[in-house]
Amino acid sequence: MQTVPTDVVAAIESNGAGQKPRWSRRRLLRALGIGGATVVVAGTGALSYRVYDTAALSPGRGDAYDPWQHWRDTPGLPGAVAAAVLAASPHNTQPWAFGIRADAVDVFIDPTRGTGTVDGFRREQYIGIGCALENLVLACRARGLLPEVTLLPDGPTGPRMAEVTVRAGAPAPGPLYDAIGDRHTNRGPFKATPIAPATLAGLVDSSGISGLDVRWTVDPAPRAALSRLLIDAAKALCDDEQQSRDNFAWFRGSNDEIQRHRDGLTLGGQGFSPLVLAISKLLPASSRAQGDQFWLEQTTTVHTATAAAYGVITTRTPDDRATQLTAGRLLERIHLTATSRGIALHHMNQITERIDREAGTGRVPTFAPRFAELLPPGEHPLLTFRVGYPVREAARSPRRAAAQVTR
Ligand SMILES: Cc1cc2nc3c(=O)[nH]c(=O)nc-3n(C[C@H](O)[C@H](O)[C@H](O)COP(=O)(O)O)c2cc1C
Predict the structure, then answer these.
(1) pLDDT tens, residue by residue, 244-292
(2) What are the pLDDT digits (tens) for 320-364?
(3) Is 90's C-beta closer than 6 angstroms to any atom of ligand 1?
(4) What are the b/e assignments for 14-34, b being 16+ CB within 10 Å?
(5) Which domains are seen in the chain, by residue range?
(6) Which of 64, 136, 168, 226 is the most exposed place for a label (fewest CB within 10 A)?
(7) Is any atom of ligand 1 closer than 6 Å to the C-beta of 132?
(8) Does residue 131's CB lie within 6 angstroms of at least one atom of ligand 1?
């Protein structure tokens, strides 16, 4: 990942509140040491290589982004799988595989596509499968294929995460299905406009879902406490060398890497304005330490500073695989509903990642008791996210094509 000096980002973004940028492009480029207004057409040397290498001039294009174009037009179960691969997944690992039969889709987990010590108990991996499952179900319905889902049909340690059998029915598209191609994780600034409690409650449709709750944090004092916890957890994760390494392993720093892997986190997904994005792509690729520093600063000055509210999905059975799959379905459903209503969502799971890391290494738990204080007794946090009205739209992230993940 590349970084832009934080003071420059802050100056341009003005924390996103719609203020005018205080920096002209020329001044900015000079400050960045790039100089001159011809930066994007520079013909020779390292800079033009970075233009090519990061696709600074054509963000979000190429084969790696093709799956966003064709999912609606593909009929039948292959089309439903094409919608499934557009779901959220931890670090964009896309830990799924699908088997298509005449009247069913089998959903498998790919255990090689994990984030190591960032997700020590592979909770997020299962949740990511649940996210894909929700898209799959919505896309089956839209295609007139009435789905019936069986979770873990081979038992908790069997190969299949889910079996989705279908029978013919009336096509039932809807706003959530329509939002599949527009749902993106938004890591940019959110507006200061609050979200009404009724609007937040309306984001959650728990039909067919049991064993999970969504707790909203809106009031200033608890919101500040959760913000503090998120910042502390981000710092602890960066200070843990193995977690930092496992985190960084999924950053794709060049267009070549993005097109080759078609997964992972990209500069384009960091929520920058187009100007900052183009300039940051021209800067040299940053080290892991710089990436960590950048994330910490963004967590402090943008993510927590502009969150209108936090949502936490909680459960009493956090270790149960079926619960984790179902939590993924609920998370994706909330994200799609938010998208359809113009509300941005940013997943922020560093606290639970630290809770699991402390548990997995036998350390004295510090984050679990602090998070527990903010939740009803007995409820364990599974997923955390912030919501708000976006300053700008989030960008697409790369995807492997449905054919690449169909057995
Ligand atoms: C279980 C899970 C955990 C995630 N945790 C984080 C997180 O802590 N921070 C973050 O910025 N994004 C997080 N994400 C978002 C993913 O990085 C994102 O879904 C992925 O990069 C694909 O991008 P998209 O959602 O824009 O399609 C998470 C997603 C899932 C499903």
Answers:
(1) 999 999 999 899 999 999 999 999 999 988 888 888 777 777 799 999 9
(2) 999 999 999 999 999 999 999 999 999 999 999 999 999 999 999
(3) yes
(4) bbbeeeeeebeeeebbeebee
(5) 6-63+251-283 (no CATH), 68-182+397-405 (3.40.109.10), 197-244+302-388 (3.40.109.10)
(6) 168
(7) no
(8) yes
